[in-house]
Amino acid sequence: MTTLTKQLIFISLALTLAGCDKVTVSTVTALLAPAEKIQAASPEASDFQVHGCNLTYKGQSLIFDANIDEWVKILGPYDRVTHLANDVYYWDEIGIGLYSKTNKHTAQTLTFEFNETIAFSEDDIRVTYGEEMKKIKREANESRSKMPFTQTLWVNGAAIKDNWDMSKVNNQLYAFNPKNHHYFDEAYMPTIFGSRFACDKEAPPYFNEGEIGIRVDVNPQNKNEIKVLSLGVTLFSEEYLKDRKATPSFSSRYFKNVAERVVVQ
């Protein structure tokens, strides 16, 4: 017997004992109230935090579009840099990679490398036909952090770790700020989730209108396992703001469901 079936039997019995022949919304809501109410996650245990669209490491802002040297002052020296489609700076011990346009040396996108950090095993490479394909696979391995990211990323009230539970993350976001309409939802593929959070143009470090985009790629064989989480900030130009139409976040349809959930604030 499923939990839902038990709940429906319990509701029927409760209404019968009460002599009721009509089910009210308040009655059903009270009987189906979740046993564990979701609260916003505490940021205390997280070195990396996102407040609005401000990414911080141990309280210091990591500013996108800034010179990579500014990130080095906060994170320490990077371990290596690869030069393929982009220049990528890796802090292997932390489990992160910072993308830059080729030869620009500016921060564009930060990736957190969860779980498995190599694309192809040595056995896979060894049995691969052709030296060119072997080279491509080795380069793919080099384009990943040497160590996984094992910490917790705190995002506007939600704690994101190596296990992906979109429902829990969205409830934590709602508990932290019920007026924030931006929640995670499935993007253009069933293994990709994402959301956007607005910049506070009155707050540092950007003092401009824009947003931080966060993408979560999960394991196709296990959608509860995060492979890579990527984020970056976009500041809106005056031309864009002038021509922009009011459009909701691509995750807004999930908001209608989240907004009706019972959470602890």
In short:
The chain is an alpha+beta fold.
Structure description:
This protein has 265 residues and is α+β, with helices and mostly antiparallel strands. It contains 8 helices and 13 strands. It has helices at 3-17, 25-31, 68-75, 122-126, 131-142, 166-176, 238-243, 252-258; strands at residues 48-51, 54-57, 60-61, 80-83, 87-91, 96-100, 109-113, 153-155, 158-160, 185-186, 192-198, 210-219, 222-235. The strands form 2 sheets. It has an 8-stranded antiparallel sheet, with helices on one face. A hairpin with a 2-residue loop joins β2 and β3 (60-61).
The secondary-structure element order is: HHEEEHEEEEHHEEHEEEEHH
- Oligomeric state of the chains in view: single chain
First and last CA, distance:
33 Å
Q: Tell me about the biggest sheet? A: 8 strands, antiparallel
Q: Which spans have pLDDT < 50 for at least 5 consecutive residues? A: 8-23, 27-33, 248-265
- Helix percentage: 25-40%
Q: How many strands? A: 13
The fraction of residues assigned to DSSP E strands is: 25-35%
From the spread of the alpha carbons, the general shape counts as: globular
Mean pLDDT over all positions: 79
Strand order of the largest sheet: 4-5-6-7-13-12-11-10
Q: What structural category do the secondary elements indicate?
A: alpha+beta
Number of helices: 8
